[in-house]
Amino acid sequence: MCAYVKPDRVGAFPFPKSDPQVRKKGFSEVEQPYTKEEVMLEADRCLRCGNPVCIDACPVQMDVRGMCDAVAAGDLETAFHRIRETNVLVGVTARCCPQLQGLCESACVMRWQGQPISIGMIQRYVADWERNESKQPEPEMENETGKRVAVIGAGPAGLAAAELLRRYGHAVTVYEELQTPGGTAWYGIPDYHLPKDVLLYEVERIKGQGVEMRTGIKVGKDITLTQLLSDGSDVILVTTGSRDVTKLDTPGINLKGVYDGYAFLEDVYVNGVTEYLKHPAYDLGKEILVIGGGDSALDAARTALRLTGGNVTIIYRRTENEMPADPIMVDETKEEGVQFKFLTDPDSYNGPDGKLASVTMSTMTLGAPDATGRRSPEAVPGQDFEMRCDSVLLAVGRGPDSFLQMQSGLKMGKKNSIVVDDHYQTSMAGVFAAGDVTTGETLVVKAMGHGREAAQRVHEYLMKLEEKHVSLYEMYYSQKLTEDSYQGMLFDREEKLPPP
Amino acid sequence: MVVDFVVQESGKLRITIRKGDEKVADIRLRKDFTYGLTASNGNEWTLSARFGGEIRPFSMAVSQSKAHDAHDVTSGTTVLVIKDHLFLHNEKFYLLGGTPEGRPPKEVLVGRRYICRLDNFPFSELSDVDYETRSKLISKFRGAPVGELDGLGKEGHHLRFFNELEDIGLPLAASCYLLYSTA
Question: What is the interface pTM, i.e. ipTM, of the complex?
Fold first, then answer.
């Protein structure tokens, strides 16, 4: 062990949490913040690498190293501006990124010596400080270009793209179907992960930069792409995200009591939990089964638990080892008392008078690996069994929201995604697309990164700079080779390697 | 594991690669920000973050710049391309930092990284791997563990792997060091 390395995080790993017996009765945050003293100590564990792989692992190239260096010195203002430069949703991503699952904390070299830096917690502290104690000015903007961009969809990809385009000096209007911007971050991420005031504050900041938000407008129904282009938009960027759920044809799936888990989450959170509690739309009963193995299945289960106080069981057809869900969230879910039943798959939904009463389950075993390398679930003959239940929430995956491409004739690919070329251009001239509607469902921060890369292409298209294209990562990379802002920090560490 | 390299900083911008107690190669930074990998037997490689006209995170191209045996590998031949943690070798895909099949994903959140061979991977070329697949490599894909990485560069970054990766062992060890362990 290196003498200069402090191997363990300040506080619990992965982060301090509220009491599960208390938190499962409400929607307050699971993750508990650091104090100022704690956050400075944790930030000071950072080695301030010459080659900060944490930034490489961040889809928006957030300046993690610069943040840690400033926070360790108690300079929260500098820390905020460093991370805000490329991350328009600092408070949101601090809370909903699975940092240890392939992102910044997973890349942190401290993993070789113990526990990676608690980057999400530090970022959260900085974002909360700015929101609650010291509002900071927005980053500088370039002069107005006179160009107009319409962004369709105010989810993470759309917001990140709109903000970058605005900073390039373009007039940006975001069209959003729902009354509140935020997309998945608004209606798909429960309050116990992301209190909505955090998101709304960051949306207001974007509006404050001059991005116009027009909510309650469904493009493709209320207005067409052609109309938008003829009404003065030079370019349209489509970022309508994921929405279409995977269709299943299990017998009995249309019984009352079998619900779409994604619609359930949206209905609970779209107008705020408080509003939902005044007029609950779902009669879940006390015995609830949730089908699926991803993060949305966990969220549907935990939301159902909070709403009903009932017995909630997640049904997954493989074992815990094959679950795609964030393992940190799996632990949280278990702590709250949600049960898991693995190697089980619904065979039929049963009930008299059109109302669900039980599910016939197949017992599964794992066979040969499939294309993902995970062993395929196979039903074991003769080992079906019945599980009594009041309701079922289905969360087995969803694909791109296909509405707009269906309406407008944009070329579609896998799962009705919008097909784009390397320049993020669709089959229609002047129409670009990015985020989950092109890639399939992914993380908030990955959608943001995709949105920003598309925004860069849109900017180059508008300004006739396409021949000089430079990706945002390459801009960051070139900067880190030459920049002088870290010279002081690196002065005593000149033996450190520059990036490969 | 049958091949075991240790890559370690040995001074200002100098890195050595050892196999057991024997130094087998070193890595030097060049003025054009590529790295030169020189083996004791005279083989040399160039490691560059730029390939295919772009620079990407966790990506590297290694080409032979001087061949000990010109009949074996010609100078200028690209011997390894890592793109977004993935590489293709002898028509098999490998993931740097994957989750071994059958192991709890929680075990690989910190500490040792595994090199996983992705059997049944539904692509034949690295350039064909789409965004959706790349974005789900960590959460959904599992592989057969054929190697492992461990350790901070300053202390010695260990790379161990099975024979199937031996012929690209040095370029792989140097790349893993530069991509994952330098501080």
Answer: 0.95
